[in-house]
Amino acid sequence: MAAVAGALPAEWIKNWEKSGKSEFLQLCRTLSENKSHENVTFRDIQQALYELAYHVVKGNLKHDQASNVLSDVIEFRDDMPSILADVFCILDIETSCLEEKSKRDHFTQLVLACLYLVSDTVLKERLDPETLESLGLIKQSQQFNQKSVKIKTKLFYKQQKFNLLREENEGYAKLIAELGQDLSGNITSDLILENIKSLIGCFNLDPNRVLDVILEVYECRPEYDEFFVPLIESYMYMCEPQTLCHILGFKFRFYQEPNGETPSSLYRVAAVLLQHNLIDLEDLYVHLLPVDHAILEEYKREIVEAKQIVRKLTMVVLSSEKTEEKEKEKDKEEEKTEKPPDNQKLGLLEALLKVGDWQHAQSIMDQMPPFYATSHKPIAIALCQLVHVTIEPLYRRVGVPKGAKGSPISNLQNKRAPKQAESFEDLRKEVFNMLCYLGPHLSHDPILFAKVVRLGKAFMKEVGTSKKLNSEDRMVKFQSEGSKQEDKEKMEILFSCLLNITDQVLLPSLTLMDCNACMSEELWGMFKTFPYQYRYRLYGQWKNETYNSHPLLVKVKAQTIDRAKYIMKRLTKENVKPSGRQIGKLSHSNPTILFDYILSQIQKYDNLITPVVDSLKYLTSLNYDVLAYCIIEALANPEKERMKHDDTTISSWLQSLASFCGAVFRKYPIELAGLLQYVANQLKAGKSFDLLILKEVVQKMAGIEITEEMTMEQLEAMTGGEQLKAEGGYFGQIRNTKKSSQRLKDALLDHDLALPLCLLMAQQRNGVIFQEGGEKHLKLVGKLYDQCHDTLVQFGGFLASNLSTEDYIKRVPSIDVLCNEFHTPHDAAFFLSRPMYAHHISSKYDELKKAEKGNKQQHKVHKYITSCELVMAPVHDAVISLHLPKVWDDISPQFYATFWSLTMYDLAVPHNSYDREVNKLKVQMKAIDDNQEMPPNKKKKEKERCTALQDKLLEEEKKQLEHVQRVLQRLKLEKDNWLLAKSTKNETITKFLQLCIFPRCIFSAIDAVYCAHFVELVHQQKTPNFSTLLCYDRVFSDIIYTVASCTENEASRYGRFLCCMLETVTRWHSDRNIYEKECGNYPGFLTILRASGFDGGNKADQLDYENFRHVVHKWHYKLTKASVHCLETGEYTHIRNILIVLTKILPWYPKVLNLGQALERRVHKICQEEKEKRPDLYALAMGYSGQLKSRKPYMVPENEFHHKDPPARNAVAATVQNGPGGAGLPSSLTINAAKLEESTAEETDKLKEKSQGAVKVINKAANATPKVTTSNGNSASNSKIIKEKDDKEKSGKEKDKEKKEKTPAATPEAKALGKDGKDKPKEERANKDDKARETKEKTPKSDKEKEKAKKEEKTSKDEKAKIVVTNAESKSAAEKEREKEPSRERDVAKDMKSKENIKGGEKLPVAGSLKSPVPRSETSESEREQKRRKVDTHSSPSHSSTVKENLSELKDSSAKHYINHIAPALSKSKEREVEKKDLDKSRERSREREKKDEKDRKERKRDHSNSDREVPQDSTKRRKEENGTTGSSKHSKSESPSDSPRSNEKEKEKNKSKSSGKEKGDSIKTEKMEKSSSGSKKESRHDKEKTEKKEKRDSAGGKEEKKHHKSSDKHR
Fold first, then answer.
1. CA–CA dist 520, 1481 (Å, integer)
2. How distant, in Å, are the alpha carbons of 584, 609, 614 from that of 576?
3. Is pTM, for the whole model, over 0.85?
4. What is the pLDDT of residues 1107-1150, one digit of tens each?
5. 73 touches 29 (CB < 8 A)
6. What are 650's strand-pairing partners?
7. Cα 592 to the center of its chain, rounded Å
């Protein structure tokens, strides 16, 4: 109000009559005339009039004054009355709210005064009814109100409209005629709309009903979209927006009865209206049934049903249950007959897809569970059709195969449909999305499936070419880096989309297609462009995840497994074809599930492998690839144990799979890269089990076998050319491996796996022991090591024979890089490099031949040597870094490289093998000629093949012969620089064996043969500084350590090596002429090993033939000793390996009868012990035992093996002593030196005290025999002492002989040789009968040993002096003869145990008294007591063999030498009497034994302390027993290598007189004794028995001894 007052100045009101009135009129006039701002003017006038009126209301101005002014103002504008009415209206409202009545009155007076200015009608419109009543314009305000409501109702709400057709049939008939007319002319929707409006007005039609009729007509005329859509759109401007949606909703509701079926036309109309956005999907969606919740329930129910079906298929159903289930199923089907109402949402969705409204369709599908919508066929087909249309232009451009026409698809006549794809980028926008919604239901449209796959193929092709272009156009700068990067990213995105589509759509759809092989092949066309990593990932998803994503796929999986079971149950070798067809059919759609089941069966039953492999011939390429994946997955299964429960062997499932792998990859064109990479990855992870697979694959695909069971004929064939190898070297016939080996080679080279696999295997081989060792069984670790090694050899062999020279050289680095950078073991590194050197040399040689055309043999050889130098010079430099500089003092790098780079092919031509194969072919050709049934053309072909093969073999033989001659010429020239021997020859041999022979002889069977040949070759070449004798001696001397450290296969190869070495030695041993020719004058057989400058032409320094035979005998003896030792240890590895080695060397060892018998007994013992415990050892031992028995007829007595007459023996000793150092020491001679050193100082002191004087007596007792063994060959001090003592009792002749033997002549080399023999017992020094062996091995002893020897001799003499008396009543000779073998064995066993069971494995020397002519001394017995105590506490069976041997030797030797003094021969009649007495005694003994057995059982129950108390008793009994038995052992038949021919003859004589029955009885007893000696408790029992026997025997002792004496004199 204040603002208004401000506008109409107060002065005007005060001076109204004078100036105010005129001023106000002036203001109104000016405002009225201002036309420029109409709105502003209007408001200003309103304000002016309002202010004026307000002053009146306030009482500042009289109403008549105001009315006068207003009458003037009214004239200024036409609408002034209306403006004034508005002002009154406002004031009416304002004053009616005021409490002051005067103001209201003023207002009323003003309006009354102005009534003549504003008409009543206007005032009635604008003023309140109460005001009108007070003004007197109306009578009653209430009546007025009622009247106005009635008028409004009549005006606005009362219409005459017709909703039903029958109410106004003419109007509706005209409407339908209007809509149904021919619309092809110039009729437009606007025109029709005007007519419709007229009809509505004219006939009062209901507009909603009209809209409904329009929709009905549109349903019937779907082709006129372009007419009806704009018509409805225009009509909708007159309606509320929701009307159309409600009408459609009512239409849909009408069909929601139980059996109602919504017409497709309605769906289509709704779809089109949605597409044109005339209605909202959300508004319409609520009108449709079923509700989303119900859809979800149905989906869940389907999943449950699918799972039930799966369970039914996997369950075993009995026949009675089957009928019940069928009835239940029938009931269920009957329940389902009442059809639920249509799913209107799906109907609408289908219509939307058909009209191409993808956006709305997508949003409906999003409301439902995944793939629920597309699992309905019509929807899937509609969506497929939409995809067809969308990809059409791109498919026509890039996808159509050459020569195919294809039927073009017309696009949708619809601008709002998805845009068609012109490029791969466009596919990403819509098509990939549509396909993802389709999922597995693309299976409904195989043609679309093929199209999508072809587009994928085209895309991959484009990716490939773009990669090529990028690599070629690196120099081109016009294309900016940014765009290149963008393109690359786009390609990557598209590629990942393609992989997604493959995973989610293509593979699941293939699953649902019914065995469509064409689709499978089509898909492979795209798949083969993917790297295998992507393919395998897709297969993995397909197999492990896809099948669980959809109820339909769950069912399919179950059905496939069911069908696979059915087929596999019936698969046999006979029905491979029909079963194969069924497998093929099943595999086209569900390969992963099928193969998974098949592989699980193969892992269980390996006899299925062959039929399954044969039945897989009907597979598609894709299926083969899936099979490769399934195999890898099965191999990598983490739940499966790779070892059997015993942890010693690889599981059978893995072996079966590996075998299957080899067969299937060979037969079918399956990509190998994945499998090879898997093996490489496993090796990287330090797991070598899976090498089994590589082994099988290479064996089957390349035909390269690795087996230790090769015969010598096969081995020989393997040393020839490729053709000979293929024909005679392998077990299986190798045919048609060309293609498969090419495939394997390509896979290795394409993925760069050739060298990595080799290096990984070489590293893994040495790592196995550390990585797989520890907790795993030693047997398994050995197996894994062998597998690793064999596979490396096999794989390396494959690469060598299949890679071209360039490929090989390009891939294999130089030897120093292999060893130093890649840490490849040297043997493996040379194995890999060897083919490279051979290729390289041959190619260089060919170049030189082409360059000069000289054909003379010498020119050729010269060129060959030149090419060798060119190739090998860098190798010689490279190998220097492999070993310490000190190594090269003894052997030259050239020799080292030559040894490692040559093969058997270079050293010898296997003529026999070539002849054998050629003869086979001739026989074959003859058989072909004789075969009447063969058709002539086939005959001709076969004959041609055989002839061609024969020519090839002969050509190959000729080629190899020339090559070998060239190599030998080269070696002849090189040999002088081979062995430098800057230290000693012995050291040189050590290096040669350590760095060359031993590592290589266990590398492969051919390498074992090569090593033996190489040694022989170096000897034949008369190589300076090479002592053949030393070399062979070191090889045969102590094989225990090498044998014990081998794996199973290495033992086999080591055996082959020893066999070949023995073969050479046996050849030289067999004939003096051969020996003289091949060794007689060779530097390798020089016996003086001097400085390297010495060239040794002196015949006296050469080892003569007879001495060589002694040396060979010594080697045989050493082999026996080592073998027996290994067999006695009880260690699994020792026993297994020595049996393998012995089996391999059987052709050449044992040759000597007594050595063979010793072995036979030990092996028999193993057979008995291991039968229950370790069946594999038992099998080996039984096998060897049988073969050994069959060799017995070929064994010879020792005297036939080497000459053994005593006078000659001394002479021999002298020559040999000057000769090969200790090369001939009896192997048992030095063993105790080592053992003595091991034993503690305490023990040696005790021995010294106890055996005082035992040795003194020896010479007195043996005054007729030459004393040899006291010194070890060279100790002058020893020899003096012994001479002094001996001179008193010996004649001059004997002294001379002795001097000869004592001449010290051994160089440092001889010492070194002697070291080998450290394991030999010292007791034998006093052993006079052992001259034969001593002549071969005299080694200087260390000072300590000399002193010990002196002391022992003294003590033993003293002992013997004491004991001579006690022996007067020793056993009768006949009894001794009879008991000789058993008693000796008994003693051996006991001595063994007493010595070997000492704690820590320390071995005590046996006193020299063992050799006395009388029973053992008391001192030795007291020693025995001590040992026996130790035995009681520590019983360990190991290391017994050596001592047993020693003891048997000692006893045998004493027996031979003291025959003169003791044994007068018995007459036959007396012998018989004695035998009768013996029989009686034996019966008595057996009774007594039974009684004692009972006592013993009671004794055994006593605790340990009791057994300790019994020890002194035991020892006295033992003394008695020994007094009896040692005497008998003197005459015992010798089994040790020191047997003399005489004792054998005597044995034969005595055997005639003996009764076989007694012999048996005795031997049985002794066997029992031998067994019992293993435990201390048992021993005590046996001691008692023995003492009784001896008491009975002693009475007959004296007489028989005298007779024995005479008979032995005769023999002498």
1. 93
2. 12, 12, 7
3. no
4. 888 999 999 999 999 999 998 888 888 999 999 999 999 988 88
5. no
6. 643
7. 21
